[in-house]
Amino acid sequence: MSKVETSIIINRPLEEVFAYLSDLRNASQWQSGVLEVRQTPESPVGIGTKVTLVRTFLGRKVGMTSEIVEYEPNTKLTFKSTSGPVPTEGSYLFESAVEGTKFTARIEVQPGGFFALAEPVFARMLSRNLEAALGDAKDLVESQAVVASS
What we know:
The protein contains four helices and seven strands; from the N terminus they run βααββββββαα. It has 150 residues and is an alpha+beta fold. Strand 4 (60-72) and strand 5 (76-83) form a beta hairpin.
């Protein structure tokens, strides 16, 4: 099993950061390689919401469906894959910080087949991708706030 955790400070209020990043339909805007996001039901995210992400992975289109298993507004969102090539569990954690909001993403994957053999490489790739995604989320949320307040 590979576990990765990364945190970043986003210079925006907690409620604003949570509202944007917990709406998983926005994932394609801050996660590289996400081509499409489908959510059921379309209503606001909550326990039981299912989200399918279609992304490119090693040059191929891959879909993964996850279900929200924990949802605490302005605090936590936890999801668990229900289908896809690699069993995955993850959490997004949100905490108030002096500079704005501390956003932490935790991902656990259970690679099988070829990926089980290459787990150290897979874990490093996952870590790099997660760090880049959090950087992109920070840039996006902070720049949207500037545009919104102009």
